[in-house]
Structures are given as structure tokens and as C-alpha cells.
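Hey, quick one: can you model this chain's 3D structure?
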Amino acid sequence: MSEKPDLELFENPRCGREYTITIRCPEFTSVCPKTGQPDFGEITIEYCPDKHCIELKSLKLYMQSYRNEGVFYEKLTNDILDDLSGQCKPKWMTVTSKFTPRGGITTDIVSKYRAE
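Sure thing. Here's the predicted structure for all 116 residues.
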């Protein structure tokens, strides 16, 4: 994949409280590495922040970096989880990708991270 934009973080305003942030990216696009055709889907990110939260404009630019990349659903879902959890270090995070039908088949991928 080409260089990814930097994710910006900000300090968690309620560091001592457990709460869930849910971010939906309903217009996610990437490219099928086999056919070169566009893939359309929704990425949902749920996490419990520890010290930092993800700034949304930088997340939007990060997600758009996949727009012209040929990548399988399974890889991109796990790459997103690795990148986001690696930078913001949440207590836990789940990334779910749900792709629109291709040939009458839909695909949903769920990948989870939990801090040790």
C-alpha cells in the first residue's frame, strides 16, 4: 500500500471512565486485487479509549487512502485495526467491515484487539 496519512490523536477528556466510541465510515471504497473493480462497504470502528482518542478528519484521510488500493477485505480490516490500535492504544477496539454484494455474496469481517 502507498504511504498512509498520519493519524492525529487528542487527549481523552474522561481518562478514568470506560466508555465506547463508535465511528462509522459508510462510504468506504477500495479495489479488488483480482478484478481491479471497486469494492464498496462500510467500516465500523468501536473502541474504549485509554489516554487518547482518534481525531476524525485525520481518520477520514486515512480511510480515503484505501480508495485506489487493491486489497482483500480480510487484510484491509486487520490492517486498519493494527494501524488504529497501534497508534491510539485503546483498552479495546473492534473493526467491522461490511461489503456490498458482489456476485450475490456479501462479506463481513470482524477483527478485535484487547490491551494486555
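One thing worth noting: The first strand starts at residue 9 and ends at 11.
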